[in-house]
Amino acid sequence: MRPSRFTCSVGCGGAWPLTEVIYRCSRCGGLLEVAHDLASLGQVSAREWKARFAERSARARLPEGSGIWGKREWVMPHLEDGDIVSLGEGWNPLLPLPGMAQRLGLSRLELKQCGVSPTGSFKDLGMTVLVSQVRWMRRQGVPLRAVACASTGDTSAALAAYAAAAGIPSVVFLPQGRISPAQLVQPLANGSLVLSLDTDFDGCMRLVREVTADAGLYLANSMNPLRLEGQKILAVELCQQWDWEVPDWVVIPGGNLGNASALGMGFELLLRLGLIDRRPRIAVAQAERANPLARAYRGGTWEKHAVVAGETLASAIQIGDPVSWPRAVRVLQAFNGVVDDASEAELSDAAAEADREGAFACPHTGVALAVTARLARSGVMGGGSRVVVISTAHGLKFPAFKAGYHATGGAPWANPPQLLPADAGAIKAVLDQRLAAA
Ligand SMILES: Cc1ncc(COP(=O)(O)O)c(C=O)c1O
Ligand SMILES: [Zn+2]
């Protein structure tokens, strides 16, 4: 098997070994990707891959009990058990939302709950790969002092936890006052060097790129394609959970656009190796206040015009200058994709509506659900479609968002607590009144 390597995603022919500390093509400046020996992977039949994945899904022991490392040949084939840093990520459950599906005229609507995860977001899927690879690189003698990232809260939490588990120092660049307290405390607890900077995410991203250019710090943002190698498994796992059927639509919230890119990569790999025979349509969902891709799409162009991202409840996608733009555009073109956005009220209501069927949706998941509703109501998503919405984080990371909604009088799904004296009679009266309709 030929070793996996970095190649230029623009296709200029540049290629580098995975031990190289490089984040952009040195010839043309394009983003990088990881190229595996597909000819060798293709020698195994689709049927055999499915059997292998099914067998490993029954294992509890790490690393192969991990949703990512159970598919290790497709991720980082050269890593051995001792290199792998796993916290038991992946195998994110699918939650059916039959009520919402019926109201929207869809035949199937499910939430892929990537927030049900060690650090509470989908970032774990990619971070296990990046940190494992860094551990391997350090063993190969590559002089890396620490790993570093800019973050809207979830990347830093994942990096801090995996780096702590690996015994590798981490540094996180955070936009002051723009992440939830629950997210801020995660890297603090895991012993990261937390830099709280007086700028927004795009400013943090510029700074981390500048500092990691020479300081022996390894960049762990999704600009680094190692992250996407893990995140692409989301598509593989989803198809496996669907008995290798493909949904009609997958809806995913987009900020820096790494995750949407990874989703497309995963489906492409499944097609290439013959495990599926068609592509789903992909919808990228943005918050109205941080919507550069939705604006471009509506304007009929894929050209990037960065915006200054406005404040939104969906703080983890408050990003105005997405790094993975060209990767995501390629995916949208190949998957007959669409882009739409959601207002603050729409995202809040959609998250709360899904909660009524057992979710605890974060605001970004709310954005994806609200865009699903828009697409279903406008007919872009045909009646009877089978849809999976990617839930990217756990609502427990955003308690102020959840509490704020239920404190708001008049919001359609608000459920404020009933204040009562400590008196059984008063309780019974309320029970008679409130449970009468049930
Ligand atoms: C909860 C959550 N949802 C969605 C996203 C968007 O992912 P991406 O930046 O890869 O588009 C992020 C991270 O930016 C996130 O933390
Ligand atoms: Zn290039």
Keywords:
Rossmann fold; 438 residues; binds zinc ion; 13 strands; 16 helices
Give the arrangement of secondary structure elements.
Blueprint: E1 5-8, E2 15-17, E3 32-35, H1 38-41, H2 46-57, E4 94-96, H3 98-104, E5 108-113, H4 123-139, E6 146-150, H5 154-166, E7 170-175, H6 181-189, E8 193-197, H7 201-212, E9 217-219, H8 225-231, H9 233-241, E10 249-253, H10 258-272, E11 281-287, H11 292-298, H12 325-334, E12 338-342, H13 344-355, H14 363-378, E13 386-391, H15 399-407, H16 424-434
Parallel strand pairs: 5-13, 6-7, 6-9, 7-8, 10-11, 10-13, 11-12
Antiparallel strand pairs: 1-2, 1-3, 4-5
The structure holds pyridoxal-5'-phosphate and zinc ion.
The site of pyridoxal-5'-phosphate has 18 residues, from helix 10.
Task: Give a written overview of the molecule.
The protein has helices spanning 38-41, 46-57, 98-104, 123-139, 154-166, 181-189, 201-212, 225-231, 233-241, 258-272, 292-298, 325-334, 344-355, 363-378, 399-407, 424-434, and strands at 5-8, 15-17, 32-35, 94-96, 108-113, 146-150, 170-175, 193-197, 217-219, 249-253, 281-287, 338-342, 386-391. It is α/β, with parallel strands linked by helices and 438 residues long. Among the domains are: 1-35; 94-120 and 228-407, 3-Layer(aba) Sandwich (Rossmann fold). The strands form 3 sheets. The protein has a 6-stranded mixed beta sheet with strand order 4-5-13-10-11-12, with helices on both faces. Strand 10 (249-253), helix 10 and strand 11 (281-287) form a beta-alpha-beta unit. Helix 10 (258-272) crosses helix 12 and helix 13 (344-355) crosses helix 14. It is globular, with a radius of gyration of 22 Å. The mean pLDDT is 97. The structure holds pyridoxal-5'-phosphate (PLP) and zinc ion.
